[in-house]
TrEMBL record:
The keyword Zinc does not apply. GO terms for biological process: proteolysis. Residues 1-25 form the signal peptide. This is Dipeptidyl aminopeptidase/acylaminoacyl-peptidase-like protein. Residues 515-671 form the Peptidase S9 prolyl oligopeptidase catalytic domain. It comes from the Bacteria. InterPro entries: 6-blade_b-propeller_TolB-like (IPR011042), AB_hydrolase_fold (IPR029058), Lasso_peptide_isopeptidase (IPR053536), Peptidase_S9_cat (IPR001375). Pfam families: Peptidase_S9.
Length: 703
């Protein structure tokens, strides 16, 4: 599979050579014989995750995930490989479509090993069915273990590996019947109905379009009947016989929720060494509230749950550091922990519990963990080595073996080798650091473009978080490497720890942007008069704030709405719940209670403050909450708005990702370089933008 994938990518890159400045989907500017990076390559990166070592430490299991633009879907596959690298990966079976979080991210996919190391067990999604499958490590067979009328929520193996327990909710038939009954009788409007959304099968859940409901105080969307309680069952793996579990036979709760003594503080992570019975803990001692959530947890060890005293790690790499993952080295003498710095660099250490000594294992300029974009998780760990997914701004994900004692690194599996080669040959990414006038330190990943003529290149900025292989910033919508290859330098800025006050947060983001432009402009790296911005979520909020209050951006692109009165209407049935969110995150009461703050934060009250062109590429799930300011901007030819059906907070459909990337590239080439794609299919797009140009003459420094 991956041999073919590499050859396809190489052929695609060669085919794209010589297209010149006429950019088509997946195209990139390049000279004959010179490597390039296409938009389609960014969409179809192979991600690696769910890394887990076998009980004897000889094998590692992992899952790959790759988008297919052609079929507008994702393919997942499970592999095993010798930890010592003595053999290539062995493909065991398909995992179907990845499950997703309510925000659109690929959800973690747990994998379990049989105690004898002969099988791996995992959930697979086929045609809207979530089942448990197992695959023989020798590659001899892959088979379903659980094919229940309902989708599997959780599963676990018995200690001897003879039985598998699992939980389900409502049956698939019951869910479909409930959806159809609502469709036929009419949907009763209460606070669980997402107002403004399509009411029938409007979002993807568990491999199918499903009717959605708002659940709990986080106002997240889940499928209809999601709140059906768990029904636990067990299957005998030798006979296949399934029986329901009695209440007294249910699996024990996870260690995190098992009720450690409250005097220790809030326990945020637990790792148990099953050999010794010891627990490694990440603890926030005795604090509550949002500020406590921002504090770095302490690393500690507990001999047993009944122990009255914690053994704390007091070495310098532990104290006051943002520790994000913990796992025991087999044997129970050392805790392996990960520190994720504010600039998203990750480092791994070993804590020798008996002596208290801490030994560095590896330091990375990017991510080194178990895979995953936002929260990489722990590496697979064997007695001698870690197996980790590594990625950095200029290097797509690959699987590496890292010796625990020496830190020696070896590549086990590199499905993105062709893209990595093209990145290395064509886009010299570098990390930069600077300080603003208030003394705040910032960091970012800079993609320099080659100057065209005597002027330095323009700059595009994405502000929020720069983790691993960036592709397109948080949300993957602004193709950083292709922007640089098309003559627009790109900068991803890591937001430092942010204040609770929304205005202070946004002003900090404004200062980061303005000081970055001043810094790069003073070096002659960019033209400070031609700057664009883009962002999702908090990044969109900072981009819109800069469009209202900074003279730096000349064009922006956002993919989520910002706070406005329309959202208060759409979430009005949640009353105090949504009011509490407004107060917590934005310090807003009702428009009558805090009129000046509403005016300061929301563009609705004065769209005239936005004097630069705005491209909005929104998800169907969210765009309605910004219509009160979007519509005036559209009518005044100051915004061009696109909405993508059936998408949540972060878009994930491959064709949507490709379209968003391409339009953002076209947008910033138009406004910052004064260039158009020669593709006649885009003539209407450029006609609209020309009309905007005539309405916003002050935004055209690039022309």
């Amino acid at each position: 599979m991956f041999g073919n994938m590499t050859s396809r990518r190489v052929c695609f890159a060669v085919a794209a050579v010589g297209l010149g400045l006429a950019v088509h989907a997946g195209g990139a500017v390049s000279s004959p014989g010179i490597a390039s990076v296409s938009i389609r390559q960014l969409v179809e990166v192979v991600d690696i995750g769910s890394v887990s070592a076998s009980p004897d430490g000889r094998w590692v299991a992992f899952r790959t995930e790759r988008a297919s633009v052609e079929r507008n879907t994702y393919d997942t596959a499970w592999y095993v490989q010798p930890v010592d690298g003595s053999g290539p990966p062995r493909r065991l079976g398909e995992g179907g479509a990845p499950l997703r979080t309510t925000g659109g991210l690929s959800a973690r996919a747990p994998v379990l090993w049989s105690p004898d190391g002969r099988w791996i067990f995992y959930r697979a999604v086929f045609a809207g069915r979530v089942e448990v499958w197992r695959a023989a490590v020798d590659g001899s067979r892959t088979e379903p273990v659980v094919q229940d009328p309902a989708n599997v929520r959780q599963f676990s193996l018995s200690a001897d590996g003879s039985a598998l327990t699992y939980s389900v909710g409502a049956t698939r038939e019951a869910v479909r019947d409930a959806e159809r009954a609502e469709y036929d009788r009419g949907v009763h409007i209460d606070r669980t109905v997402p107002l403004g959304d399509d009411l029938y099968r409007s979002g993807f859940h568990e491999g199918r379009l499903a009717t959605q409901r708002l659940v709990d105080n986080e106002l997240e969307r889940f499928p209809l009947l999601h709140q059906e309680p768990d029904h636990w069952k067990a299957v005998d793996l030798a006979t296949g016989v399934i029986h329901a579990l009695a209440a007294d036979a249910l699996p024990a709760k996870s260690a995190v929720t098992a009720g450690f003594p409250k005097r220790f503080g809030k326990i945020v992570a637990v790792a148990e060494d099953h050999g010794s019975g010891h627990f490694a803990l990440l603890v926030r001692p005795g604090h509550e509230g949002r500020e406590a959530e921002r504090s770095s947890p302490e690393l500690a060890m507990l001999h047993t749950k009944a122990s009255r005293r914690l053994t704390r790690c007091t070495a310098a790499p532990c104290v006051g550091k943002p520790i994000t993952n913990i796992v025991w080295r087999p044997g129970g003498a050392e805790v392996v922990f990960t520190v994720t710095a504010p600039d998203n660099r990750q480092s791994i250490f070993r804590w020798k519990v008996a002596s208290g000594a801490v030994v560095p294992v590896v330091a990375s300029s990017g991510q080194v963990g178990g895979g995953g974009r936002w929260e990489p998780g722990s590496c697979g760990v064997s007695p001698d080595a870690l197996v980790c997914v590594t990625a950095r701004a200029d290097r797509p994900p690959r699987l590496e073996r890292i010796e625990l004692d020496s830190g020696k690194r070896d590549v086990l599996f590199d499905p993105n080798e062709a893209l990595a080669h093209n990145m290395a040959q064509s886009v010299p990414v570098r990390e930069i650091h600077w300080v603003d006038a208030q003394g705040t330190r910032f960091s970012g990943q800079f993609y320099p473009a080659k100057p065209q003529g005597h002027k330095p290149p323009p700059l595009f900025i994405a502000y929020y978080r720069c983790s691993g292989f960036l592709r397109g910033g948080v949300g993957d919508e602004w193709p950083l490497a292709p922007l640089a290859l098309h003559g627009i330098s790109a900068l991803c800025i890591n937001a430092p720890p942010t204040p609770s006050d929304a205005v202070k947060r946004y002003r900090q983001g404004q200062s980061a942007v303005e000081s970055a432009v001043a810094y790069l402009g003073s070096r002659g790296d960019i033209d400070p008069d031609r700057v664009g911005m883009g962002g999702l979520s908090f990044g969109a909020e900072v981009a819109m704030w800069n469009a209202m209050y900074s003279r730096v951006p000349r064009a922006i692109s956002v993919s989520t709405p910002v706070v406005s009165p329309m959202a208060r209407t759409l979430f009005g049935l949640w009353g105090d719940v949504y009011a509490s969110r407004l107060k917590r995150f934005w310090q807003l009461g009702s428009p009558k209670e805090t009129p000046e703050r509403w005016r300061l934060l929301s563009p609705y009250y004065d769209v005239g403050r936005i004097k630069v062109p705005v491209l909005m590429q929104m998800s169907e799930q969210e765009y309605r909450s910004g219509l009160d300011y979007m519509v005036p901007l559209i009518r005044e030819h100051r915004a061009d708005v696109y909405v993508f059906p059936n998408e949540p907070h972060q878009k994930f459909q491959p064709r949507h990702k490709l379209a968003v990337y391409q339009r953002n590239l076209d947008w910033f080439r138009f406004w910052l370089l004064g260039m158009k794609d020669a593709d006649p299919a885009k003539s209407e797009q450029y006609a609209r933008w020309e009309k905007m140009r005539q309405s916003l003459p002050g935004a055209l420094a690039g022309w």
